[in-house]
Amino acid sequence: MSPDPAPSRLAAAAPDLYGAVDVGSHTIRVLVAACDAEGTFRPTHHERHVTRLAQGFSRQGSLTDEAAARALTVVRQVAARLRAFPLRALRCGATGVVRKAANGADFIQRIRDATGWPVSILSEEQEALLSLRGMVSVLEPPEGPLVCFDLGGSSTEFSLVDWETRSPLWLGSVFVGAATLTEAFLGDAPVSTERLRKAADHARRILRPAVESIRTSLQGRPRCGDKLTLAGTAGTVTTLAAMDARMAHYVPYRINNRILTKTWVAETVRSLGATSLEARRRIVGLEPGREDIILGGAVIVEQILESFDVPHLRVTDAGLLEGLLLDGARAAGSETAPGEPTWRFSRELEETR
């Protein structure tokens, strides 16, 4: 998508600004937010760019030259625009596929050389923690134990959360995501029933250790018998929510706390599996550039719902990107209470995908 207009005007109106860049396996996302004296954050600038950084990774275990070049072109353009903002802090992190790639460190150095950003490869634990920090900043209080997941292009992070302290009781990551599952099993569209079954079996097998660890961690804890609340974030989950809402014009804050039922997700998996890429592009709410990997992501969401045996999940647009920004603000000395930031959203920043 194109960036928000007139960043210099926004920057001049909000001197206390913080920025974050999430270099993901499928998408690069950018956020600038102003923090007032009460510790309230107001987003003032959003960008998202589909780069398909994970494309070709499963065949060679490295980022391809073409994928890296696409991402580097985007980060150079983003860096040029961010210079218009007097940022007090910028936090930039790369995730899943960069973490796994044999040439991931070299790619990060190329970003540093091109932009001057203090970019780093996030560990599995860091990614899960930062994603959790972003999610709990907007989630409504859960009815029972809370499990959060961040489903990216190549990995999925899980956290079991103590809501009272907003802190993790268990963290983990598995290497399965929308892009990698698609590349391994779902390259055709429409896809055969057999390939769809194999993709689901593979996702369930990769997810199993995390699911079992969370169930073990729940045993013996207070309220462990209460109904579990499942919450998800990142591109697949928010796109599914936008599709469910038939949201032609994507509005991030309207996604927060939206409910997706297991029945709807299962029906959507079957429908997407029987649909061509061209037909998927016409689906209201489906982000352009995600039509090829949305089925892979939806399969993973369905398997997460099945594995935890819950009837629905709660969606948040806020996740890793917001967690990066909040972490950078805290490190720079923002006055907001740790773990308890508040957000104020504006119609001026309703985002077009």
Explain what you see.
By secondary structure, the chain is of the alpha/beta class. Helices cover 43% and strands 21% of the residues. It has 14 helices and twelve strands. The protein has a six-stranded mixed beta sheet. The termini are close together. Mean pLDDT is 87; it is low at 8-15. Residues 333-353 are annotated as: Disordered.
* Biggest β-sheet: strands ordered side by side in the sheet: 5-4-1-2-3-12
* Low-pLDDT segments, ≥5 res: 8-15
Number of strands: 12
Order of helices and strands: HEEEHHEHHEHEEEHHEHHEHHHEHE
Percent in helix? 40-55%
Question: With helices defined by DSSP (H or I, 4 residues minimum), what is the helix count?
Answer: 14
Distance between the termini: 6 Å
Keywords:
single chain, 353 residues, alpha/beta, Nucleotidyltransferase, domain 5, six-stranded mixed sheet, 14 helices, 21% strand, globular
Quick structural overview:
With 353 residues, this protein is an alpha/beta fold. The protein is 43% helix and 21% strand. A six-stranded mixed sheet has the order 5-4-1-2-3-12.
What is the secondary structure topology, with strand pairs?
Layout: H1 7-13, E1 17-23, E2 27-35, E3 40-50, H2 57-60, H3 65-82, E4 87-94, H4 96-100, H5 104-115, E5 119-121, H6 124-136, E6 146-151, E7 156-162, E8 167-174, H7 178-185, H8 193-218, E9 229-233, H9 235-244, H10 252-255, E10 258-261, H11 262-273, H12 277-281, H13 294-308, E11 312-315, H14 320-331, E12 342-343
Parallel strand pairs: 1-4, 3-12, 4-5, 6-9, 9-11
Antiparallel strand pairs: 1-2, 2-3, 6-7, 7-8, 10-11
Protein name: Ppx/GppA phosphatase N-terminal domain-containing protein
Domain Ppx/GppA phosphatase N-terminal: 37-327
Pfam families: Ppx-GppA
